[in-house]
Amino acid sequence: MSIFSEVKQQVKPKQLTRFYLGKPIKSGTTDYYLSPFRNEKTPSFAVHDKRGLTDFGSGEHYDIISFVQKLYRITPIEAAKKIASDFHLNIDINPFDESNKISVYRVKGGLKKWRDETLDCLTAIYKETQTSKRTLKPDTIGYFVACELEGPLDYWTDALISGSETEWLQVFRELGWGWCF
Questions:
Q1: Coil, helix or strand at residue 153
Q2: CA separation for the pair 45, 73 (Å, rounded)
Q3: pLDDT class of 102 with cuts at 50, 70, 90
Q4: What sign does the dihedral 98-100-106-107 (CA atoms) show?
């Protein structure tokens, strides 16, 4: 069972919001709070153990993990670990079993495929910029764009050819998954 499933199984939404937000303004089957994400005068943030957390003012719905994630501006895994720690849950917060190893290998395989495809695109764009610089007049926008692209193209290409996986990830963060497809 994943940390997410275990946390959701052991902590109920009303229990969680009372811990993080305090006493509700109105309680019953559904607890109501002022939204912690915006200023309001009438409580529109509803918490129900079976239906989860709903901010009727914004229309957003949360489970306990996504609520803590947004409240503290952290990742989902950090939110699950925070809940597990704050509620003293007996959960292994750093599980790494065989299924996780397989996922890591799949991600690395996807990253290598992305790297190879991105290098092909970068090479084609680099060739276009060189052609533009040779054929266009220096006072044209195309020439200017070609010159502006040269530095980033060199950096990204070098990082993908001779960099580590960490550097590949940095380029991925800058460019995204399908930027040239």
A1: helix
A2: 18
A3: very low
A4: negative
